[in-house]
Amino acid sequence: MKPTLLYILLLVCSAIGQLDAQSSCRITVPVIGFDEKTGATIDLLSAGDFRARFKGGEIPIRAITNPPATRRIVFVLDRSGSMTSPRSDSADHPRTLANQSLSEAVSTIPNTDVVAFLAFAGKSSWHTEFMTPDSAKAKLPDILAWNPEKNSGLGTPLWDNIDYTLKMLNIHASGDTIVVISDGGDDMSKLGRSQLEDKLLRADVQVFAVAVTSNSWQTPEEAAGPPSLAELAETTGGAFVIVDKPLNRSDPKGHSPIRASQMLSLLAHQHNLTIEIPIHRPEKWQLTMNAANAGKEIRLLYPQFLYPCAAVQ
């Protein structure tokens, strides 16, 4: 018996429906919103407060959920020569500024979270297990006293060491965060920044970066702030600040100055958006606030690229 035309049409429609179902998937992405004028975070949000665009068209936002109750935070501490030499205890030395920034940041982490540390210089590195913030505060003097091996070399493999923290965070979970304290230089990593960004985005891990510079110890170009580190943080959905003087924090894009401790406090206001999108490969997208927030200078921190469902699970 030959199949009827109606039967054939039903088969085709069914196949198209199955293809559409397979080509669209639901992806959860973190987002933080704050007013650039006042620095106040934007809370009490709903899915209707956002507009998501992809390839010129809008994509549906299905839900918004609260930040995770707990999270894992790994600090990457650059102890290379540009950060620690020549030895000095002056208030504007990069090592002094880095130590102060680390202490500020750790002091604001709630005890519901856990933290770990990775310090590196040249080919040498050292890391801790995860611990409570209270334990971390007690161990900070030992962590900051770490010295690299004499034969570690003078290079700075920053990207490779950030990549190593992804192994410390394996298996990845919602809320995983990497905090980098460095001058942003990298001259010996095997992994390129674009490759690192790809790994971070696939793992849904945000980078929050504190770039330490000093007019007294670095060139004007270095003191202006490392753009590569800023772009890494922005691409992954994290924040970036420059520390160039004691108690002075600034953003390379001219936003309201914030301290390292204030930067991490943004995590308490990080929400998760669930969006539905047909996607087969990594694609750039755009997220904005809707018209209800017109007149406000709202800045959103969110991952700049979306990955297919299979890549982020």
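The above is record 1. Record 2 follows with the same two-line structure.
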Amino acid sequence: MRLFWELGRTSFRLQLTYRAANLAGLATNFFFGLLRAAVLVALYGARQEVSGISLQAAVTYTGLSQASIAYLLAFGWWEVMESVYSGNIATDLTKPMDYFTFWLARDAGRSAASFLLRSLTIMLGYALVFDITLPGSAVQWIALIPALIGSWLISFAWRFLVNLAAFWTPDARGVGRFAFGLSWFLSGFLMPLRFFPPWFIQFSRWTPFPSMVNTVVEIYVGVLTGPALARALLTQLAWFVALAILCQIVLRAGVRRLVIQGG
């Protein structure tokens, strides 16, 4: 546990040193968030509610989804892939920590720093520009904590799994771009899932992606309450466990292939 903490703390401090990149990313995410909010306002027109989501909640959704970009690295993450191609994985595998846990610790520090520097700042900026929705009960505020942790864990496990494609192809970025693009649609990042046809919503629920973004948003705006909220949190836990197990299986197969080929 101490090693996990030290790795996370080092990663956290490293992320803080990228001041220019953090500011540029913050400005970009906030600007496009404003554009997305303007599009939703235009789509709503004179209506104040669509599919159970008020205009105020829809605008808040754009802020929340933009705030998740850096926190979840929604547009891509290639570090494990690069370690395979560079050969650094040979050194990483000798560390006194499981390879999955090693990268989990590093990503925890990075994610925490991004959450403080960019996610919270984006929401504060939104609060200055728009009349955004705030959780209306203590239960919502409390539920947000495990929901945010769960969304990050699932995101990490998915990113890690996608990166393992590097064991089987000389350039796995194409696989990654398709995989991450798919998650944008099915997670509710591009548009609230409740706006899509019922068949699409049902299909997305058979994937882990709604637990990354949609669950957090719906808890925040108060759409998920009571038993539905509890089920959503349990679903997050179940998906992380399933993805973590799958990551270990694929990793072992990849390492075995690497060793056989003399890596």
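The beta strands are 49-50, 53-54.
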